[in-house]
Amino acid sequence: MARVESSGDGARLVSWPPQRYERRRQTWYYSACLTITVHTVPFAPRFRVHVSTQVRRWATRLDVRPHQLGGATVLLDAPLPWPEGPDRGHRLMVNTLGYDRRSKELAWRRHSPAPLVPELDIVRNYPRPEALFSDPERWINGPGDVAAGIVYHPSIGPHEVGPGLMPRERADLDAWVEEGLRPLLTRVPDLTRVSRSNTPSLLPRSGAGRVPGVRDAQLALQRRAALTRALHGRPLEIDVFWQSPETPAALLAELPKLIGLPAGQQVSSADGETWQWQCEGVDIRVRARPAGPLADALPTTRARGGLRAVRLAEAIEGRCGLVADRADPLLGGAGVVITEIAGKERFAAVPDSDPKHALRIAWARQGRLTQFVNSPDDTDSALEHRAKWTWLDVFRQLGAISPPAHRVGAGIPGNLQYVALWLVRHTRKGPTRCRVHRLVAVRVRPGDGPGVVEGWDAERAEWVPYPELLLLLSQVREPAASGGKETGTGKLVDDSAARGGSRPAARPGVEQDRQRETERQIRTLLFQLRDRPTLLLADAGNLRQCWPGLRNGALDRDTLGFGAEPAQRHTLYGHDLRVLLVRDANARGEVAEWYAHGTEDGVGFAEGVWGTADTEGRVFASTASKPHTVAKLPKGLMKLAPTAQGRTAPGKTAWNPGQLEITVLGCLSEKALTDSGRAGDPPDRPAEWATLAHQLRYHDDYPPLARPLPLHWARLAGEYVLPVAGTKSAGSTSSAS
To answer: How far apart are alpha carbons 249 and 270 in whole angstroms?
Structure first.
């Protein structure tokens, strides 16, 4: 039977009691879970109900110590104190179990209802936190009338039941829900393809009749050409700080393969081992040295009365001093530092001890970009694979990457530029325990050669190379005495978390100040982009907090709204401006789950761009192809009701493509052209612009991306937004270009 679990963002139906799966001489528990949420859709007058399906797994043992349990969700199945109520026997109570550092013991947390009425009656009690922690399986099976299940999370150990459901089973559940809700709610009509051009002009995959290695050679030539353009004749200086000798060996072996060069030449060096490549305008020098104390855990303290953000800032300053001693003062070219560090699980026991962000801040002060690779003992992936992705991310940070040529058609201008916006939002739980709101803008101009990647420097009001943007994002000024501070690019930062360990009340109007500042920056950007056709890409779920005009209820075709002013036609901000919004599930089920219908009632996967039957529609769905890393499973695999042929089905990890919603907010429609005095020009087809955004999710070096490539770059640039609380020993940050 199903039980109701109420949550803050909707409701869930959970099958109860849980199902059992016998594996490795142990019983593992899982349930079917249907999450029900209500959402709006751009330009639609009615709301929609989204029903998503998944597997809810239950913990049978906790491979962590009590003090490492930050907070685990617990569902209680117990008779209610009011037995005649309408919810009798049909609801699970949501609680949170975690370690209380004040009492130094496990406790119910976050206003859990269990401690409010701990005794059901004179005989029965709710489970005590320590009893539930020590023997979760006993409480799943429910001694007496009381049962409890700890919702599984990977941080508490392994689980033999795999996550996810395959499309056939999801379709069956979907049909069951549709039947149960009819006629109160009706199903949204199925979407249909709007384009057959699913992918851009990617290199062909190696296959039958092709010479082995040809595609790899073509990719290497592309990467080397992009690297040559990004370096502009400057040498590339790379320092590798290693903890295990096999890591630099793998990096040095993978680099020449990725850019099509022979093995490097080892040259004499007074400090570590150095390899050099000089060929066709590329001058690369890689120096490998032991990491030593650079990769050690940060020496954080837990002194009472100290401010957490300030204590962390002091530890960061100490690591910056170590880095300054190891930095090369004669560095004259582009600089990247690759550091081998332990996995974040190694630092979980001591909060704020992970050195990754401190090293990024420290090397940025020396004008160096940073990339990290995990030690072999802390990851299951092959060392060669990790070395390859380390270099690919180094190339991305250097701006040595270009979007692929699209295959949409003549409706897309040849000199089109892409601009992506991403809002970085850190709370006091962020990487440096400081709050910050920071707008990141990235511009790509494929028409200027194979592609130039730049970022917006708001302080100088100009576009700068992408590597310089990353270094600028790492800079912050000292906290001001008033309620905020200015960053290195003039963006207001709330440093209240740096001043106190508990969350203080927000200064009146601070949200409005952030909103006005963000909208001012966006307007400034738009007026700087009027010289050529521009496609503006924004993630609605990410940006609407500081740009309320992107909320579904405020959207109107071919208009842009800022603040309290009436929305204006978007062509006022650019003669050839197009605006596309993307949105994913955003951890709230904001877009519906996806599966594809085939012939003869078949259900499976399909990539492409999808839309409604309305030829004037502006809202589309993008689904990508299956990544090569996902294991091949039968599309009809059943986990909730495994058959005799699929007794091991619950142990499989299922995968389904996520839907990316693409909304063509602004384009040159017939009305937009008429309103701007250009009635004779041919109008845009919204489906073509949605197809362009879909194709931007593909690149030769990556599996299909979650967002279009320019947005991917803008989001990753946010990794350098690391404000540091003010300390007595903190020095000013240095600028580097």
So the answer is: 19
Q: What is the pTM of this model?
A: 0.89
Q: C-alpha angle 445/448/451, rounded to 5°?
A: 55
Residue 715's nearest CA partner among 357, 420, 489, 368 is 420
* Contact (Cβ atoms closer than 8 angstroms) between residue 30 and residue 19: yes
Report the CATH number of the 232-397 domain: 3.40.50
Answer for the pair 14, 77: CB distance below 8 angstroms, yes or no.
no
Q: Where are the alpha helices (DSSP H) in 260-355?
A: 308-326
Q: Does domain 417-634+659-720 have CATH number 3.40.50?
A: no
Interatomic CA distance for residues 572 and 585, integer angstroms = 32
Residue 183: is the preceding peptide bond cis (ω within 30°)? yes
Amino acid at the residue 5: E
According to the 3-state scheme, what is the secondary structure of 624-648? Answer: CCCCCCCCCCCCCCCCCCCCHHHCC
Q: Are 347 and 374 in contact (CB under 8 A)?
A: no
**Mean pLDDT (10-residue bins), the chain, 737 residues:** 78 92 92 93 92 94 86 83 56 87 85 60 70 92 83 91 91 91 90 89 65 86 92 92 94 95 81 85 92 92 69 93 82 83 85 94 95 84 92 96 88 94 93 92 79 89 94 70 38 35 55 92 93 96 95 96 93 96 92 78 85 90 81 83 80 89 97 94 95 94 94 97 71 34
3-class DSSP assignment, residue 244: coil
Residue (of 60, 74, 154) closest to 107 by Cα position: 74
Tokens of residue 120, six digits? 């059901």
Same fold, 232-397 and 417-634+659-720: no
Place of tokens 């709204």: 561
Q: Which sign does the torsion angle of CA 139, 142, 147, 151 carry?
A: positive
Phi, psi of 408 (to 5 degrees): -90, -50
Compute the C-alpha angle 397/399/404, nearest 5°.
120
How many CB atoms are located within 10 Å of the residue 209 CB?
Answer: 5
Instruction: Please give the structure tokens belonging to residue 203.
Output: 């290199």
Could you state, in order of their start, the residue ranges of all structural domains in the chain?
Answer: 2-181, 232-397, 417-634+659-720
Residues forming beta bridges with residue 437, ordered by sequence position: 425
The number of beta carbons lying within 10 Å of the beta carbon of residue 173 is 16
Closest CA to 735 of 492, 495, 464, 484: 464
Q: Where are the beta strands (DSSP E) in 44-90?
A: 48-58, 72-77
